[in-house]
Amino acid sequence: MSKICVIFGAGEYYAGDPMVPDGAYVVAADGGLDHTRQLGIAPDVIVGDFDSLAGHLPQDGTYTIALPPLKDDPDMLSALKVGWAAGCREFRVYGGLGGRIDHSISCMQLMALLSRHGASGYLYGDGLIVTAITDGSLFFRAHPVPEDGRMVSVFSHSDVSLGVNEPGLKYELRDGTLTNTMVQGVSNEFRDNVDATISVNHGTLIVTFPIEVALPKVDRLHDFDGGIGELDTAVSKLLVR
């Protein structure tokens, strides 16, 4: 089983307290440190340029990676890289959605980045979780579904995603093709006490599902090479001076 990294960002936290599994590696990304303090959670690492931190800067003696404000990698990507370097391949991210829409889109892009390197990422949002899968499947065990239903949506992050299957959902797509300009996969539903799978043979899917549903079992069709890159602590070389 992959080591789990729990990341606290500066975005919205909504209802309910974040869950930190025993033995998880905890990273506070910039203003996420405010949230760990409020929750009484001690992060293993603090990383960021601290432009979104409302409270005081980290105390001496804490493991802090200070980044320049004029950098290429956003704080969340840096936090993912820290967790990756610690051996984590499953990432649960709180505070990565809500607030600025550009930050939310950025975090969704990062879920796709993780999936394309054989890792799993989960963004916890307002009643939902956002994840991504590349060349593989997400298996959701049967569970009770309320009468008003709960939406599960599937989008192609790749230009084209081939061999998309959704057995067990209300609309059972079979061997479908989705593109990144199609919205056919929006507003599907789980069926009451029926196992469901979302899979893609070739491509990357962004998937949203209800927060009360257990995290899926992930299977991949092949091994993935490489990583998500080294931690970058330098000032951006793209700046116009």
TrEMBL record:
InterPro entries: Thi_PPkinase (IPR006282), Thiamin_PyroPKinase_B1-bd (IPR007373), TPK (IPR053149), TPK_B1-bd_sf (IPR036371), TPK_catalytic (IPR007371), TPK_catalytic_sf (IPR036759). Pfam families: TPK_B1_binding (PF04265), TPK_catalytic (PF04263). Transmembrane segments: none annotated. Coiled coil: none annotated. One of its GO terms (biological process) is thiamine diphosphate biosynthetic process. It is an enzyme of class 2 (transferase). The keyword ATP-binding applies. Its EC number is 2.7.6.2. Residues 136-206 form the Thiamin pyrophosphokinase thiamin-binding domain. GO terms for molecular function: ATP binding; kinase activity; thiamine binding; thiamine diphosphokinase activity. It comes from the Bacteria. This is Thiamine diphosphokinase. Keywords: ATP-binding, Kinase, Nucleotide-binding, Transferase.
